[in-house]
């Protein structure tokens, strides 16, 4: 049996970045991916872009996006709940990552239309996340990295300050290996809906899981139970508003709804409950999962008119369409009189719309209504009218392994000599709450590379 210097648990972006980096440093690397080959890549399969600092135009990115602006954007969505040192480390290193990614087969394209102000901040993958994952697997294969699919890691044996053994099952057979170093890059626990419900309460059973059904937190729980230091709140997660018709698992990016800034959003009682125009969508879209989660039955409904239909990226499901608001209310099982009154009150609160500009904060707002709408507030008056149902879609959870700036894990007794973590499983160190579009890929890429480098140096 092959002896491995490094075992990497997980098969997504962070795991692959770690694997390539370690292999390039001369280490013999094994990736243990729980999913079958056709589902390899974790949540990275569903990503579209990478948020990247740059001081001048860089490949598809225009103008500049410096460290201070990037960090300010992060502070806004996390409300300051971040480890500044680790956050700035991720931001600062993102600039060097983009050419590194290209060298390993990733191709980029200009930002997609309807993505609201991302051309300067986010580099889009040509072919999406699945193309990125496939490119990395091809590169890893050329570097001699071995990959075992449907390999279910069940336990890491921590003895003192060292991982002594790794247990996994594959094809019904139990295995034990003792690599010199281990990197955990196996995501959060969001696919374990019972764990979600223990953290959130019963409403969590109504949540949809946008990403892979294989991220159940088995290794995370195993390590936390052995005293590995944790970070993050189990009720905090990257949760967005997605189409209510999405599947329970793995609906991915195409189920996300980007219509909120140009709509009013109501609950099942046809009442608005938050400012739909609070900020440009890449900075604010992740708050809507939690907002919808707080509503009765964990559902919401976005209402737009024909003028707004082409202002945002469409979901995989077409909206409901009606010639009147009354008809639309009936189709959505909303109280007819209440919805028409809510829309009438909103329309009456809208003012001058001459400065309406769909891709930037335009100050076109309501007056005399609560909650206000502070941007893109146009009356909903032009038939046909359209509606989407909204549900909470969880991408990944923020409870994870605490790491230092070398991506190394610890217990209360000190550093674990041969254990590192990267990607969603440690992102709670940086994302205390909220989310910034494309930042998960930044964290995974930067800390995957760091973990791969550090583990290889230790193994060698």
TrEMBL record:
EC number, as in UniProt: 1.3.5.4
Pfam families per the UniProt record, alphabetical: FAD_binding_2
UniProt name for this protein: Fumarate reductase flavoprotein subunit
One example GO MF annotation: oxidoreductase activity
Enzyme class: oxidoreductase
Residue ranges annotated for the FAD-dependent oxidoreductase 2 FAD-binding domain, each copy included: 5-432
Keywords from the named record: FAD, Flavoprotein, Oxidoreductase
The UniProt record lists the keyword Flavoprotein: yes
Species assigned in the record: Falsiruegeria litorea R37
Domain of life of the source: Bacteria
Gene3D superfamilies, per database record: FAD/NAD(P)-binding domain, Succinate dehydrogenase/fumarate reductase flavoprotein, catalytic domain
Family annotation (PANTHER family): FAD-DEPENDENT OXIDOREDUCTASE 2 FAD BINDING DOMAIN-CONTAINING PROTEIN, FUMARATE REDUCTASE
Cofactor(s) the protein needs: FAD
């Amino acid at each position: 049996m092959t002896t491995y210097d490094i075992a990497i648990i997980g098969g997504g972006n962070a795991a692959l970045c770690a694997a390539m980096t370690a292999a390039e440093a001369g280490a013999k690397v094994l990736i243990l991916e729980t999913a079958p080959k056709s589902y390899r890549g974790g949540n990275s399969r569903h990503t579209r872009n990478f948020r990247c600092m740059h001081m001048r135009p860089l490949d598809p990115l225009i103008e500049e996006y410096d460290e201070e602006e990037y960090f300010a954007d992060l502070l806004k969505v996390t409300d300051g709940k971040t480890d500044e040192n680790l956050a700035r480390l991720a931001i600062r290193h993102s600039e060097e990552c983009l050419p590194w990614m290209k060298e390993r087969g990733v191709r980029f394209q200009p930002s997609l239309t309807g993505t609201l102000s991302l051309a300067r901040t986010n580099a889009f993958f040509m072919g999406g996340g699945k193309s990125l994952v496939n490119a990395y697997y091809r590169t890893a294969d050329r570097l001699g990295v071995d990959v075992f699919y449907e390999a279910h890691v069940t336990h890491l044996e921590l003895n003192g300050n060292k991982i002594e053994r790794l247990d996994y099952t594959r094809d019904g057979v139990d295995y034990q290996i003792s690599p010199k170093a281990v990197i955990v890059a196996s995501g959060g626990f969001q696919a374990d809906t019972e764990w979600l419900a223990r953290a959130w309460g019963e409403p969590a059973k109504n949540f949809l899981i946008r990403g892979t059904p294989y991220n159940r937190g088995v290794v995370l729980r195993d390590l936390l139970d052995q005293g590995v230091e944790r970070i993050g709140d189990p009720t905090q997660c990257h949760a967005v508003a997605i189409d209510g018709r999405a599947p329970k698992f793995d609906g991915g990016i195409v189920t996300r709804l980007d219509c909120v800034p140009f709509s009013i959003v109501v609950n099942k009682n046809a009442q608005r409950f938050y400012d739909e125009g609070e900020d440009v969508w890449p900075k604010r879209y992740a708050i809507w999962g939690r907002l919808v989660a707080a509503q009765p039955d964990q559902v919401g409904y976005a209402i737009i008119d024909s003028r707004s239909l082409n202002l945002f990226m469409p979901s995989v499901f077409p909206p409901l369409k009606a010639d009147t608001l009354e008809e639309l209310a009936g189709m959505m099982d909303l109280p007819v009189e209440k919805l028409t009154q809510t829309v009438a009150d909103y329309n009456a609160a809208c003012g001058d719309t001459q400065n309406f500009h769909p891709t930037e904060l335009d100050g076109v707002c309501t007056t005399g209504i609560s909650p206000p709408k502070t941007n893109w507030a146009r009356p909903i008056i032009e038939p046909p009218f359209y509606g989407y149902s909204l549900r909470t879609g969880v991408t990944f959870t923020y409870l994870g392994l605490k790491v230092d700036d070398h991506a190394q894990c610890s217990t209360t007794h000190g550093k674990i000599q041969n254990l590192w973590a990267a990607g969603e499983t440690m992102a709670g160190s940086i994302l205390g709450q909220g989310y910034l579009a494309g930042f998960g890929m930044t964290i995974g890429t930067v800390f995957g590379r760091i973990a791969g480098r550090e583990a290889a140096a230790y193994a060698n």
